[in-house]
Design brief:
0% strand; 117 residues; mainly alpha; globular; 55% helix
Length: 117
């Protein structure tokens, strides 16, 4: 799993959680996306990531408090647009992930293999 996939998966998890839209966006950005750098995002959606960072006035030195204050200043439409951008980036990042092999249906279950636990 790539770092971008891990961070955007976490961000989507926060966005899908409970709470107000801006609160979910704050958690997604402060806990996941703030660690991302543009070169970690696929080129076809890098403009969306750059827009996200620009609109939040993100910088490597931006504190979590400043990030949250910037999100709080957004109106609901702007917050919704940023969330849409995060979801679009996640969808693109997810397409680059190699498929995970399904668990083998033929592997014996430990509890049924006759071995003592």
């Amino acid at each position: 799993m790539s770092q971008a996939f891990a961070e955007f998966s976490s961000a989507v998890w926060h966005l899908a959680g409970h709470g107000a839209q801006k609160d979910r966006l704050k958690r997604a950005c402060a806990l996941s996306l703030v660690r991302m750098r543009p070169n970690e995002v696929p080129t076809e959606v890098r403009h969306l990531f750059d827009d996200l960072r620009q609109r939040l006035r993100d910088a490597p030195t931006l504190t979590s408090v400043a990030l949250q204050q910037n999100i709080e200043r957004l109106d609901d439409h702007e917050a919704s647009e940023l969330i849409d951008g995060v979801l679009r980036i996640f969808a693109t990042v997810a397409r680059y992930q190699p498929p995970e092999p399904p668990p083998s249906m033929l592997a014996p279950l430990r509890c049924c293999s006759g071995e003592a636990n």
